[in-house]
Amino acid sequence: QVQLVESGGGLVQAGGSLRLSCAASGSIFSLNTMAWYRQAPGKQRELVALISLGGLTNYVDSVKGRFTISRDNARNTVYLQMNSLKAEDTAVYYCNQATPSGVGLTWGQGTQVTVSS
């Protein structure tokens, strides 16, 4: 099974930017839709953004206009560019294959994003 490794998180001030990467151990070309999720302390994991194999994207309302998801199938990598970060974006961020029934792969370790206000 394809394994996922997220990276790029860190501590940033409100208004700052980060770029997250999700490297897959195998081809993501066959995985169709990929997505980024996040889980804040004490909250359930939520879908943040997704991207189809053809590049169609969708975002949760709270990040629209600030976050951009992209994918490089040749490098088996999915990215999340996060701009104008807010304290409420603080969470552990994960990527996964999005399927109609949920997710298709085992969760990785995630990458911590902390935004100071």
Count of DSSP H/I helices: 0
Taken in chain order, the helices and strands follow as EEEEEEEEEEE
Based on DSSP secondary structure assignment, what is the total number of beta strands?
11
Mean pLDDT: 95
Q: Tell me what portion of residues adopts beta-strand conformation.
A: over 45%
* Euclidean distance between termini CA atoms: 39 Å
Cα gyration radius (Å): 13 Å
Shape: globular
- Which percent bin holds the helix content? under 10%
Broad structural category: mainly beta
Q: What summary fits the major beta sheet?
A: 7 strands, mixed
In terms of per-residue confidence, which ranges show pLDDT below 50 for 5 or more consecutive residues? none
Can you put this structure into words, describing what you see?
The protein is mainly β and 117 residues long. Helices cover 0% and strands 50% of the residues. The chain contains no helices and 11 strands. A hairpin with a 4-residue loop joins strand 7 and strand 8. The mean pLDDT is 95.
